[in-house]
């Protein structure tokens, strides 16, 4: 968002925990509006990097190392501000910690001490240190959390500490320094109204904003509170999108819920959009949930939402939506996530915060799921969950799925995730085996000749050799050369679908999602420019491209159900490449699977050829006819029937055991 005003010229701001995430964003905004800022972090390296970032934007900034529970470091932070600028006008207490998800009865005393020391005591002590240097009219801002209103499972004591901060801001000995002790004016209310109407208030809605000079102004007032003077209370329910928004987003196309899911240990958040099932076959508390992850690395889950399997598609005019008759939320709740951090609307606090490996991606996905469940009714968590996605999500899904099953036993029962299976479409999962298949796939499809096949095999061998040597960046580059040469040899519009004369036409999705009214309707941050695929995430994960997640797939096969599916026309991550790595899986059920019949699969009703199904034990493999890399976009009917019948264990996936039964 472009900052056009300089209303803080001449002021000095001190912000704690401000080298990334919310704290850094606050410091940057205050600085862009003219304030000199003093930032802090526990690590000198982080302080130095953040100061340089702020200075590069023309902001006057200094920094200090400060762990807010350390009295000497708090004093040093205040001294840094006074030494450099002589006074303080704005104090922002942002630091917080949540070191555990234990319940109250299991929480150790040392953890309780840490929560109160950092989340509550530090704000009071910091204010004590700063008070002698606060000028008349100064502002003290304490960052709390919605958990303070409703402490959910896993955030119970964290939420209690945040509730304490609400009370702290009401204490007379604090507010006496800032209450204006005058009647409110019409200009005071006009300023608040202008703020609510501005882009700065784009994430505020359905709230009561009180302009009362710090005086008691809520229901059930304190019996000793003085009567309110006239013209001091402004009640506002803001609708932060234009009048055109309902036409762009008809009510039926809006997500059931959308916005941001916090990743507490990363001081960041991932964007999500959730659509409840429209025609479920099961009771509400047992209706399955699907989490969809896009590939890339760095491609937004909203591409899957608005181009492949969500309830509405963006039309070619990039301005309107049309219903998708084959949406995956017909029978199931459907959750789209912009992951990893830095993808889509999930802006990273800095490039350094973008994950570089699957372990961190998996941790973030689980944290996002915990945040999602925390704001749902208690019974929501018991619903069966299936991780789904395509392409580079062939890595995210096994990594996240195995991580969830690994940590579940150590979690309190109320925080466990009911993972019941994973589904991977056209996945890049074991690249060293997959990169060696492109020459054969193209040659036996008649797309290249024998000489071209030998040339491609030489490039493939280089990629394999570099991978075996764990020279990850070079191996990733070598794979890129294989695919580039193959596309050049074949003259195809895209390797993702050998039958297409043009690449997938996804451009309108980006144009639509970058409209202000679309962002507002979805609850996305107005200042974030949506990209279909993030170059920054691609660069951060470049060394991850050729690494395998087969061990995680093997772990999943021993504990839950796995579906692998590919569009038959995909030359990048298609059927041949999947067959190649499946043969290397170490799993007791593999011999039986390889000997299983590959059955012809037809759609219900009209009996059209949908593809082929092979299954045994926990593993199902589906080849989808009439589709390339983006299976739901190419053959929506088959994709919908496949996911519904696999999850519900119906049709070609029917079996005994403890799975869900379908009434379909």
UniProtKB/TrEMBL annotation:
Molecular function terms, GO-annotated: serine-type carboxypeptidase activity
Signal peptide boundaries: none
InterPro entries per UniProt: AB_hydrolase_fold, NAD(P)-bd_dom_sf, Peptidase_S10, SDR_fam, Ser_caboxypep_ser_AS
Keyword terms: Carboxypeptidase, Hydrolase, Protease
The keyword Hydrolase belongs to this UniProt entry's keyword annotation: yes
GO biological-process terms attached to the record: proteolysis
Keyword Hydrolase part of the UniProt annotation: yes
Family label: Belongs to the short-chain dehydrogenases/reductases (SDR) family. Belongs to the peptidase S10 family.
Protein name in the entry: Serine carboxypeptidase-like 50
